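Hey everyone, long-time lurker, first post.

I ran two proteins through the pipeline my lab uses and got sequence/structure pairs for each. Pasting them in order. The first:
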Amino acid sequence: MVMLRLDSLALSRSRFALSPFAETLATIVQLARPAADSWHPQWHARHRVAFHDRLRTDPYARGLVGLISATKYLPDHLVVPPGGGMETTLESELAEVARVPDEAVRESLRLSVAHSWEDRQPLDWFTGRDHGARAAELFREVWDTHVAADWPARRAVLQRDVTHRAGLLAAHGWPRALHLMNRRSAWVGADAIRFSDQPGPDRVVGADGMLFVPVSARRSSWLCHAPGRPHALVYPARGTGVVGPASGGDRALARLVGAGRAVILRHLDVPATTSELAALMSQSVGTVGGHLAVLRDTGLVDRTRLGRRVLYHRTPLGDHLTDGAPEL
């Protein structure tokens, strides 16, 4: 199993970050596979055909996507830790990938092929030059075509997860904040995180600490590393950006409290700010604020201040009403 062994200062200097590039990488893996472990099944169904049509016209893109969706070791040049904290931009990450020398790309692909779970992973598509720039171009196209339109809602999901875990961190410390961050991770003792049950060398996390980077895909998780940079753990954020089709219970709840307020109650499985809810619902902050005021007056929602942020959360009554809405 792979263990992350933390320096004595590592936890105090660890923090959260966002990575549009990691979000794009998770999107590529989701669209490459038939199972929709995506942030929303309807999005997967809507985009997958166009994505595969694009791959059929480009052997390089088809080969790279085939490899990264079928290996336990993602190519190093695609898993660089984000450098801008919560404000990391896609442009900065693409520029970093584009600068990777061809020899470094070739070595990272060799390791990925060696760890592929498919019997045969050819590299006949790996021809020509400027492979870092070619990968960056593919990621830019995937972002523009399949991610950008949903990014405000996805970002709200990611920020909400960070806010939730930051609250756990403040109240209970890192072990509670990292609990169930992915399917295999677990806190071990006082200074180690089990990242994976797969064989592999331990990683030492130095005094710079770690970055914890949420993505909206429901199962995606990997480690990012680069010389002179802190390790980053990419993990699936809690919840999705879109509430699914209404069930009988959802319709009953909507008739009781109103459709907009019912959606807010569903979204508050994880505490969120007014602006995060507005982004998730594609509504104005004023509209969402009005709904929240009504829900507070009726005792279904309350709020807590965390630093500069005001988080709304369901009360026990709100939980009971939302989770216990009867099917018709």
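...and the second, right after it:
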Amino acid sequence: MPPRKRRSFTAEYKVEAAHQVIDSGRTVAEVARELGLNDGLLSIWVKDERRRIAAAEVHGDKPLDPAERAELLRLRKQVTELEKDNAFLVKASAYFAAM
């Protein structure tokens, strides 16, 4: 049997998964099972996110609340789509300019 391909996760996914534990008060095991992750991996993400939040509070920064995080993710996706559209338009305009 061939070895399983190692999955990689974006930083945004890790933060969102960690916040499902932090914000909801559910256990790491419950959320890990729901997301199809190993509990050890998710617990590392939760510890990292809690450290990041604590460090932000020490420096006087306020961490994002769930609504702000959701808005940030939505805007990042929108920016990605707009960048793809712009790249396409640049290529199309170069193609038609060469005609």
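Reply from user beta_strand_b:
Welcome! Quick read of the second one: The chain has four helices and no strands. The CA atoms of residues 81 and 94 lie 20 Å apart.
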